[in-house]
Amino acid sequence: MLKRLFGGYGQITFNFANLFGGADPSQQLYFQKSSSTQAFICCDAPKDAKLIIVAFRGTEPFNAQDWSTDVDLSWFSMGKMGRVHLGFMKALGLQDDKDYVKGWPKNYTGDKKLAYYTIREKLRTLLDQNKGARIIVTGHSLGGALAALFPSLLILHQEDTILNSLFGVYTFGQPRVGDKDFGSIMKANLNVTFKRYHRVVYRFDLVPRVPFDDPISQFVHYGGCLYFSSWYKGEVMKKEPNQNYFNPLYLIPKYFNAWLDLFRGIFAGIKLGKDFQESLVSILFRMVGLFVPGLASHSPRDTVNSARLAKITITQDYEEELEFV
């Protein structure tokens, strides 16, 4: 399945390698003169594809530029679209951090291959080659933030062909990316005919709870979330519990669930089969989570397992916001 999924198209590594994973310096893609943003574009078939997937890579543990992007909490104004996280916008290729019109010209004519413009051009080509194909944009952690922001630039530039082909935006462990005004604009554009924005949170994952939703920071999530409250038991709700992570009422549950996740991770392979057997690295990561509860819940493994094993319920107060095709 993976071979077929990625067989038609290869890796896009912005600022580091060429469009399909080579090493020709003339094909390097740039962001702030260093390697950083990475994404994959793939189709469900080499020809006559029905599905195109854009997947942004999350934070690399030992990539200083990625961490610099994550902790840059400065605001960037998008005019009537509201304010967004400056660091994440830079990762997509922002050219001017003072003026959004100069920062995001509709047509970029420079010699650098910037993330947003490169992906947009590739999507235009793929849609022209694969009539009627639908697009899914996704990502985990930092990748989730970029996946959430990418459509906002399509909206800004009125890229109707791509937007009309956008089937959904699915983010996993995504931090907050903008303010209330930005969230309203995104909901108005993504969730009109049916819900196209889906945010997944696993347990007490720290990352979706930052930057803080408070009167000072003013970052907010929008559009609800699919929250896994216990091991792969999902619930669709408006907001995840313990929204800013440091609520003392959740201190004991966070440590208890860190231990529970460790034991379940060790025995998952025995109960569920070899497909769910965890590596030593994953187990060690869960052990670190005993000291910083919520850290291990950010593991992509839980995200993948949740999608495969979950039983999902929808809270009554959220039903009116869900319209699926």
UniProtKB/TrEMBL annotation:
Official protein name in the record: Lipase
Pfam families membership: Lipase_3
Upper classification of the organism: Eukaryota, Viridiplantae, Streptophyta, Embryophyta, Tracheophyta
GO biological process, one term: lipid metabolic process
GO MF term list: triacylglycerol lipase activity
Positions of the Fungal lipase-type domain: 53-213
